[in-house]
Amino acid sequence: MQLLTLGINHHTAPIEVRERVAFGPEILSSALHDFRSYIGSKAPLHFTEATILSTCNRTEIYCACNENPDIDSLKNASIQWLSGTQGISQDVLQPHIYSLPQSLAVRHAFRVASGLDSMVLGETQILGQMKDAVRQADEVGALGTYLNQLFQKSFAVAKEVRGTTAIGASSISMAAAAVRLAERVFGDISSQKILFIGAGEMIQLCSVHFAAKHPKHVGVANRTVERGQELADTLSIQGLDTESIRLSELPAHLADFDIVITCTASSLPIIGLGMVENAVKKRRRKPIVMIDLAVPRDIEPEVARLNDVYLYTVDDLGEVVQSGLGNRQAAVGQAEAIIETRVAHFMHWLETRDQIPLIQELRQRGQILQQVELERAKKKLSRGENPQDVMDALAQGLTNKFLHGSLHALQHLQGPEREVLIKLLPELFRSNHIEK
What we know:
Elements: E1 2-9, H1 15-21, H2 28-40, E2 47-54, E3 58-65, H3 71-86, H4 90-93, E4 98-101, H5 102-113, H6 125-139, H7 145-164, H8 174-186, E5 193-197, H9 201-211, E6 217-222, H10 225-237, E7 242-246, H11 250-253, E8 259-262, H12 273-283, E9 288-292, E10 309-313, H13 318-321, H14 329-354, H15 356-382, H16 387-412, H17 415-430
Helix pairs in contact: 2-3, 5-7, 5-14, 6-7, 7-14, 8-9, 15-16, 16-17
């Protein structure tokens, strides 16, 4: 069995590349079907399983092929598919791609689940995102024995790491970092008006952190009015002055807000340069902080050139989230040691699984030889031959067949192969369990 993880993340690619290969949740199922079909058509690749993990910081394909195809063929076919599906040339994509076979793929999955590969070291959100990706792969029939086992072990390792180390201690979340960026510009947020665009998990996390600063007013704009109103109502219960805005009404309301945090699943920007230019004019040079946590981005990057606009993306939050990292370095070493041990265990399981076809074949051959000798003994007994003689002949026949392959190889092999066999045979026969 060949395992391979292929992808890009915030370590290897800037946001302008990551957003071009990101998969929205609405197309992930069809993408999995298409990927499996594409790889399966590339002989001699024998493809069985796949999972796609796509977040703001990474797009990764986890796959498993039966037998042992050439890893370069599998890698090249995967890159070709990703390039063609997402409309990005291989020349642009290739420098940012990493491909991790076998134990490297296992180690990577364990590190991702444990938060060791995240922009925010030790964060927990990635674990939920990975579980969602696995659930979706399972629902479309793309998850099999090997990847299922890989991810279940990943979740178990993540639990062990978080339960036995301080990897998450003193970490700064993306949501908390967004608050800090806003405070760099305005200082006291309590006199500012905040607009949340979207109502997903990231926006909900941000709303909790910003609500703790008791802003003057909070607006929520969402494509689905009901979900936006639900978030607004939740914040209102906390004593905040809130309103719900239709996403289509955003151009008319943007100038009313000092801080804008957006994170939607839109494949195209929902806030363009012209919309922000108009808002800036209405605000009469009063600064506006815009924090775009979406990948693909919700705000056109050209907005950053405008005076009095402070635009930040997920990549810009990197400096802030690194605070407290020094306090967690010891925990990182402990976590890595746990992961190395669990990788070894998983690879042992994988090797054992790979031996199952050989074991089954040996058992089948043994059963065939056994049946031949039994039939021969039954015929002798039916002819009235002495039972003791028949039993002796049966035992001798089974012994001869048991030894035949080894003795034949010993007589005909030459050189290093014969030397290996000579060393191996005593071990094989010593391990046979004999009871009297």
